[in-house]
Amino acid sequence: MFSRSISSALATINKYDDYNWAKFSMYPCPVGASTPKGCLENPCPPKEPGCYKPQFTECCIKDKYEDCLVSHLNCFPNTNCTMENRLKLALFLGCFEGGHVEEDHCPQDPKNCTEYAGIDYEPIAQCFQNASLVEAAGAPIDAACKAENPAFWPHVKVNGEQAGGPGCDQDSCVIPILPVLCKAYTGTPKPKSCTMLDQLDLV
User: Fold this and answer.
1) Is this prediction's pTM over 0.90?
2) One-character DSSP codes across 178-189
C-alpha cells in the first residue's frame, strides 16, 4: 500500500514539476540473517526471534535482494541519485512490496519487478549471488535501521520528522503520501503537483 503510494507520488512529481524536490530514500530494514544462505538457518525478523521458520525463509531471502538493489541505485541522503533512479526505485517497490505491509507477507518476484522498473537486473543478481557483496550492501542499511529502531511499519520520515505511526488507522496518515510531502514543502511557490491535489486520483 505505502510502496504504491510512493511510486504514485514520484510519478506525479516527475510528470508535472520541472525540478526534483522530493528526494526519496528507502532503507529495507533486515529480516533474519545477513545472507541468503544464512536465511535457511535464521530467517526470523529481529522482533520475532521465535518465528515459524518455513514461513519466513522466502521473505528473508528476498530481503537480501532488496539490499543489493537499494545499494546499487545509491538513493540515499547526500548522494547524486537522479530523479530517474528515485522513480525507478519507487516503481520497483510498488511492484515488489505491492499492497502488503505486514512482515509475514513476502514480496513479489524480484527479477520481474526489477525489469518492470527499468533497472538493469544483472549487476543486482551478481551481488545477490555473492554472500560477501550481499553483506557489504546490507551493512550500512542495517546500521541505519538499528540507529532508527523503528517500532512500526511503514516507518516514514519527512524532512527528518516522523510521519504516521501509532494512531493512524491502516497508515492513513501517510497514504496518500503526496499531500504529506506538499504540506512539508516550505518553498514558494508550491510545486505544480501540490497545487493540483484536488484534481489528482491519488493512491
Assistant:
1) no
2) HHHHHHH--SSS
